[in-house]
Amino acid sequence: LYGVVTVDTDAGGNTLVAAYGKLTLHLYRVKGTEVLPFTKISKPMGHHILDVYAMDIDGDGSKEILVTDLVNETVSSFVLKRKGDMYQEVAGEIRYYLTVLPDWMGKPTLVGQYQGVDTPFQGRIVTLRWDGKGFVEGEKLPHNTDILPLSSGLPGLSSARFGKEWRLIYTDANSYLRVLDSSGKSQYRSSGQYGMIPDYFEWGPLIQIEGRRNWYRLRNAARVAAGGGESPLILIPEVKQGVLNTMANS
């Protein structure tokens, strides 16, 4: 399992969480200290779940589960909606890598990046709006995705308010945590390394001498604790050097 996401919490404080691995999404009910299996959603070989978020995209008061899925070499995200005691896919073959910015201009915001030609993720980051059948592009974020660090793609992106301004927080391809300015350049870079997931995918033309395609590592985005105001509390797992070396040499 590579990530855990809070889906919903009822009035009694009971929580539904999603834990995901490469092919499977496990849903659990958390009641006090009990963790109870709820349901499991699995995909066949050839799929690779890259990231999972939860957000109420249609305004009905219940969060949908947004899954970024890679099918062979094609980004094919999908949306799961609760229907009674089950979650059903209500939209699929979405060509965006999906990310929810936890606090962007004062509210959670869904953004996406389209699949590239020379790299898996390419082009400007855009806000997305649900129209009942799929997602419609809104404004493009002003940050430059043609330069480092955002040229590494949308994975690892988060946001928070710092003082009077909203900033993107980014876990880059080398596992450094950065706070970006309005153009996409780093205002801050951590000395330690954070957020790397022990998972990667292959993409692009075959490297004949090595018998493989390029590797792209996945990484966690920073979580922003609620109620932080102008001084946000940022939560992200630390990377131990031995784990990083293992991934680099695998």
In percent terms, what proportion of residues is strand? Answer: over 45%
Q: What's the mean pLDDT score?
A: 91
**N to C succession of SSEs:** EEEEEEEEEEEEEEEEEEEEEH
Based on CA atoms alone, the radius of gyration comes out at: 18 Å
How far is the N terminus from the C terminus?
19 Å
Low-pLDDT sequence parts: 246-250
Number of H/I helices: 1
Multimerization status: single chain
The portion of residues assigned to helices is: under 10%
- Overall geometric form: globular
Biggest sheet, open or closed, and with what strands and sense? 5 strands, antiparallel
Tell me the structural class.
mainly beta
Total beta-strand segments: 21
Notes on the protein architecture:
It is a single chain. A hairpin with a 5-residue loop joins β16 (176-180) and β17. The strands form 6 sheets. Strands 5, 6, 7, 8 and 9 form a 5-stranded antiparallel beta sheet that branches. The chain has a 4-stranded antiparallel beta sheet with strand order 1-2-3-4, with no helix packed on it. It has a 4-stranded antiparallel beta sheet with strand order 10-11-12-13, with no helix packed on it. The chain has one helix at residues 241-249; strands spanning 3-9, 15-20, 24-31, 34-42, 47-55, 64-71, 74-75, 77-83, 86-94, 96-104, 107-114, 126-130, 135-140, 157-162, 165-171, 176-180, 186-193, 196-207, 212-219, 223-224, 234-235. It is built from 1 helix and 21 strands. By secondary structure, the chain is mainly beta. The two termini are 19 Å apart.
